[in-house]
Amino acid sequence: MNKKTVKDVELNGKKVLVRVDFNVPMKDGKITNDNRIVAALPTIKYILENGGRAILFSHLGKIKSEEDKASKSLRPAAERLAELLGQDVKFIPETRGAELEAAIAELKDGEVLMFENTRFEDLDGKKESKNDPELGKYWASLGDIFVNDAFGTAHRAHASNVGISANLEAVAGFLLEKEIEFIGGAVDAPQRPMVAILGGAKVSDKIGVIENLLDKADKVLVGGGMMFTFLKAQGKNIGKSLCEEDKLELAKALLEKGGDKLVLPIDTVAAKEFSNDTEFRVVSVDALADDEMGLDVGPATVELFSNVLKDAKTVVWNGPMGVFEMSNFAKGTIGVCEAIANLEGAITIIGGGDSAAAAMQLGYADKFSHISTGGGASLEYLEGKELPGVASLSDKCCGCGCK
Ligand code: ADP
Ligand code: MG
What we know:
Blueprint lengths: L14 E5 L6 E2 L2 E2 L3 H15 L3 E5 L10 H4 L3 H11 L3 E4 L5 H9 L5 E4 L17 H9 L3 E4 L10 H7 L4 E3 L1 H15 L5 E5 L4 H14 L2 E4 L4 H7 L14 H11 L3 E2 L3 E5 L8 E5 L8 E5 L1 H12 L3 E5 L12 H11 L5 E4 L2 H9 L8 E2 L3 H8 L5 H4 L12
Helix pairs in contact: 1-3, 5-6, 8-10, 9-10, 11-12
Subunit structure: Monomer.
Keywords: ATP-binding, Cytoplasm, Glycolysis, Kinase, Nucleotide-binding, Transferase
Family: Belongs to the phosphoglycerate kinase family.
């Protein structure tokens, strides 16, 4: 990565502003999954061990009304962080003002402070989400250096990332660095053969990803609901399967552009209702009845995809192969997940919220080289788009020795 990281800057005695992604799931004021807090620990610990004074902040959910504030406070996240770090985390229930400024002034080397949900600022004219320049400038004035470790919001230009970077030297934390190295490495300089496997509900969500990966990958395997728009574009009867009529022309163009590179399923698991309690059958993609819908890829397709995956040195997976939430239609996703997880000597990456959830649910999380923490951000990265939260960080030295 050509961006500076926490390792490239002096931290000792510095007030270090750290944008983390503590947008954790909560129920009744309790955190139900602390993965994101755990994932930020290496950066926070490194700053503290090197004598920095860490000032942490994050968004949590969306804030549309005064009532949202009660359930969207970062206090529980600060408490969980204190447990994980084994040290005090001073929580300031404000996003600006005298109390926050005084607490920062009192902070000592190696101590941690966390302030309130950055989106509390959205109640007053969406200042955070619309990157109000005054807000970014104000937050920047609170510290000496800015560390961005929030990959999950790197695809958005908000005051708490881009707004601060405009006013202060900004570097990447370890989590953000890891995401960029894995996803960027896989897309821009992959070990070949590189195989992309794409699924999920809609072609329209993933057009950019398919287009970009058709240029970069050696094979692109398509499953999930979006396979049917492609199959229909080939003239097949897809019955009641998911189809985006307005994307048929585009699907035709992608099929033409992709040629042998684009591999489609040969069989599907079909049912008459969108339900786990209905009858289903495995059927060739050429034999769907008018009243059936395809809800998963079939076993022959899993075998076909597994054969393509067998020789891969880099695999990028985005999107489940079927309606994996229903057990009768989860076998395609499980089969593909297993095929990727069992590859030896390949770099394997999952980018996409539902596919990551599927892999974790199946107990394969450890078998992948990297599971991205940011669904939206990883998708935009796979599309080849520049992420504003990354672009706004300071570039690494060109080799002249400057710091
Ligand atoms: P990701 O979050 O990994 O990027 P998406 O959000 O694009 O994935 O898509 C996931 C959704 O796609 C799941 O809820 C799944 O049920 C749905 N899906 C997959 N295959 C089908 C299908 N054949 N018909 C309808 N929905 C499908
Ligand atoms: Mg999703």
